[in-house]
Give the backbone structure.
Amino acid sequence: MAFSVNNITILGNITRDPELRFTPSGTAVVSFGLAVNRNIQNKKSGEWQSEVDFFNVTAWYKLAENCAESLGKGDRVLVSGRLSQDSWEDKEGQKRSTVKVIASVVAPSMEFATCKLEKNPKMDSGGMAAAESTKEEVDFTDEDIPF
C-alpha cells in the first residue's frame, strides 16, 4: 500500500480576527483567514508583481482557545497542518467546494515583532489542571529509584 502525505506550512498575515466557537459537546474551534503574499516577475516586461493567496484556517481544542486569546487581524503567523476539502450543494443545486487548513501548529512570526510566551498549566487526561506537586518536598530513598 502506498504511503500518502498531507502537510502544509504557510507564513502569512491574519486577515480577520480569530472567531472562537464551541461545538454542542463543548469542544473549542477557531477559524481565521490567512493571506500569503508573493512576488513574481512578469516575463514580458520584467516588472515585479505582487500576488496574494488566501487560506481559511481552522484549529481545535486548546490551540483554538490560545489562537483566539493571543492573535488578531494583521498578525504575522506560521501555520502548519493539513489540507481538508469540504463539498456541499448550495440552494440552487450547484456543487461547491472549498479547501481549508486544519492547523496543528500556529506560531507568531518573530521577523517583525516580539512576543512573551506564557505557558498554560498542563492538563491531565480528564482535562483538569495538574496539581502543583513540584513545590512539595519529596524524600526519595535508593529503593524508590527503578535503576
In short: Residues 8-116 form a domain with the OB fold (Dihydrolipoamide Acetyltransferase, E2P) fold (CATH 2.40.50.140). The beta strands are 8-14, 19-22, 28-41, 48-60, 76-89, 95-108. The chain has one helix and six strands.
